[in-house]
Structures are given as structure tokens and as C-alpha cells.
Amino acid sequence: MAPKYDFDLITIGGGSGGVRASRIAAGHGARVAVVEEDRLGGTCVLRGCVPKKLLVFGSSIAADIEDAAGFGWTIEGAHHDWSRLIKAKRKELDRLAGIYQGLMDQAGVTVLSGKGRLAGPHEVEVDGNIWTAERILIAVGGWPYVPDIPGLRDHAITSNEALDLDARPDEIVIFGSGYIAVEFAGIFAGFGSKTHLVFRADKALRGFDEDMRDGLMAAMAQRGVHIHAGASIASVDEASGKKQVTLDNGTCLNVDAVMAATGRMPNTAQLGLEALKVACAKNGAILVDADGQSSLPSLYAIGDVTDRVNLTPVAIAEGHIFADKFYGNMTRRPISYDHIASAVFSQPPLASIGLTEAAAKAKGHSFSVYQSGFRAMKNTISGRQEKTVMKLIVDNADDRILGAHMLGPDAPEIIQGIAIAIVAGATKADFDATIGIHPTAAEEFVTMRTPRA
């Protein structure tokens, strides 16, 4: 008897979450297809985390060269070849896309190349061809949002293009205050571009701990980023090959490039959701239950397209749980969104898990704050004035660590280890009983003894 559908599962979107869900489902014996109009890998591999981190690595070397003098090194004639870096980055992305394709091939997943859209509750149209499946999984992620400001959409690049420029701009305006904005500010400034960071708020990184935000603003200014806080772009024009950026405070900047780093939106506009009356939020995010199921019973969604926690590891975990539940008959606990560590690969980097001081107060916790600020050992002899900031939020009721925050070298690597302890329910007493590794910055998390007044 012929199968009722072409596939058991069709996944629209070949990014990290979609690939994980598809190959795990296929491993459980399901007949699976992935629809992808670009190479496999999605935002993280092709237009986000991976290429961005490679550029962060490259740009941070400038500070290392600057610091080297304090350690007795004389480095003459150091210069950077942007085109060589971009060529190497493209080669690495090709390699990673090939790995993703290999994963699909090994799992027996069919890759349908083209743009996919819903044609019915069980139907997906791919470049004019209709394919059917018992379940359809949407994993198309997000896409950069550019505000409707005169000239901005005509003249601005986004993070997509910023990662693949053939030439580095000598001077650039970056509009935004989120993690993408501050990361690219560090990248361009590190490579030598005169960098302007423009944002409406009083400081960048809304939602992160205030002391981390303050520390990062000071560090970025020390590293040469020109910060225009409390300002917005009023208009962008072009003349004589330059972008003329007018701010609403009257400041005019003539630069080589303008980057809009003003957030991302769920990439749902052309999926055909409206025709099927799939419930979505105002920003286009697909509304789903704990199992990822939408208002259309055959349709599921994971990752940034749901606008819950927009992080690649979250999308991967959601995809894995989805596949295990529906194709492996495995009862797994839904992902917990309470304690998810995150990092901003700014320069210096910032990392965090759990509640900020403001969030702990808003939730009504009685808590104590343990905080330390110091110049990292490397900075003392190099002469760099930049400070590392570390902070623990501790519940007074049961001594549990409610949040841990760090700004400084290796912050993401350090907080990853701290995150395991916090997810496991560690208390301040557990931290105090832990012997530190000396001399490291990380040991400060287990040596802070006195609460802040």
C-alpha cells in the first residue's frame, strides 16, 4: 500500500535547528525532507555566529599587538589584509556547509533545493513542485529588520552584508544597541575603521545587568568606538561616494558605510501562514505550545521563528526534543527557558546566566549582591585600563545563585562552566567551598565573600 504522504516530515529551513530535527527524526526511521533555498547551515553558520566569531578573533589581535609592548615585544610593520581574511572565512563556511550536507546524506534526509512555502496543511510548494508530509516543521529563523527611516533602507547594510564586504570601510556608522551592534562595533574598530555607534537609549545592551552595561560602554570608548547615546538616525543620503548620516540631535556624519543593527524579525512573511490561518504574533512569530505545535495541528515550529529564546543552541535543543518525541517515541522533558546562558562577543566580551539585579528585584526576591571589579593581570603590565567586572546575585532565602554575570576576557568560556552549577541548583556556600584556580580571573567567582552594601 502506497504511503499517504511523500514524507513523514518536511522541514522548511536548513539551519542548525532544522538540520538537527531532521537528522534525528531520520535516525528514528522517519522519511524526512529539508527545504532550503541557500546552502545548508542557516543563519548561525552562514550569516551569524560562526563568521562573526571569526571576525571577532581577527579584530581582537589588534589589541593583543598593542598590549604586547608592555611585555617587551616590538612588532613593526603589522598590517591587516581584509580581503585575505574574507577569503579565508568564505572557505571555512564552504567547509561547514559541506559538513551539514554530509550529515543530511548520512542520515538519509532528502534535501529539496529552493524556496518553500505552505500550500496546504500537509503540502509544501518548492519552486512550483508540491510535496506532502504528515507533519511540517518551520525552522526558517529570523531576518534583519531595518526601520523605515528616510534613506536608511536604501543605503544601509545589515549583518548579512557586513560579514562579507569585499573592502573594509574606513569609517562606518552602526545603528543599534543590541548584541549585534556592539559586536560589529568591536570588529570594525579593531580592524582600524573609525566606528560610530548610534542608539536611542542611554547605554547599549538593554536587558543585561546594569554594571556590565556600564563597564562595556567605558571599555568600548577606551578602544576607540565613538558612542552617540540618546540619538537616532534622522536620514541617510549619498553624495560623492559617501553616506551622509544626519542624527536627530543635528550631528552630521560623512562615512563610507552605514550598518543597521536594529533587531531581527521572524522570517515568516512569505511562508503562506496567513492563508492557512496559522496564529502568529504581531511581529510574525509563529505561536506554538510546549511541543512546538502551532494552531494548525500538522504544523510545528522551532527556533527564532517562534521568538521565544533566539539562540542557536536553543533551536538545536528544541529540534532534538521534537524529533525524539514524535519519531522516537521518547518522553523527554521540554526545554527549560529559565536558566539559559548567553554571551555577547563584544570587545571585551560579556556573558550572563540567570537573573540580573533589576530582574531579581522585579520578581520580589530578597537577595544579596557579590561584586568585584579589577584589572585583569594581563592588563596591569600592558597598561590597558580596562576592567573586568564580575557579579553574583544570591537569594537570601535559600542561598541559591540567581544570576551570574561577567564582563572581561574569556567571560563566555567562564560563564559556561558557572552555568552548569547554577542549572544544578548551586548555592553561594557551594561556590565558597570550591577551591579556585590561581592565578585566574575565574577564581574570583569562588573568592567573593562580602556582599555589596
Provide an overview of this structure:
The strands form 5 sheets. Strands 1, 2, 3, 4, 5, 6 and 17 form a 7-stranded mixed β-sheet that branches. This protein has a 5-stranded parallel β-sheet with strand order 8-15-9-10-11. Strands 18-19-22-21-20 form a 5-stranded antiparallel β-sheet, sandwiched between helices. It is built from 13 helices and 22 strands. Helix content is 32%, strand content 25%. The mean pLDDT is 96. The chain is α/β, with parallel strands linked by helices and 453 residues long. Strand 12 and strand 13 (242-247) form a beta hairpin. It has helices at 16-27, 42-47, 49-68, 82-107, 152-155, 159-162, 179-190, 210-222, 312-327, 357-362, 377-382, 411-423, 428-432, and strands at 7-12, 32-36, 110-113, 116-120, 123-126, 129-138, 142-144, 156-157, 171-175, 194-199, 226-229, 233-239, 242-247, 252-255, 257-260, 264-266, 299-301, 342-344, 350-354, 367-374, 388-395, 401-407. Helix 1 (16-27) runs parallel beside helix 9 and helix 3 (49-68) runs antiparallel to helix 4 (82-107). The protein has 3 domains: 7-144 and 265-327, FAD/NAD(P)-binding domain (3-Layer(bba) Sandwich); 152-262, FAD/NAD(P)-binding domain (3-Layer(bba) Sandwich), CATH 3.50.50.60; 348-446, FAD/NAD-linked reductase, C-terminal dimerisation domain (Enolase-like, domain 1). It starts with 6 loop residues before the first strand and ends in a 21-residue tail after the last helix.
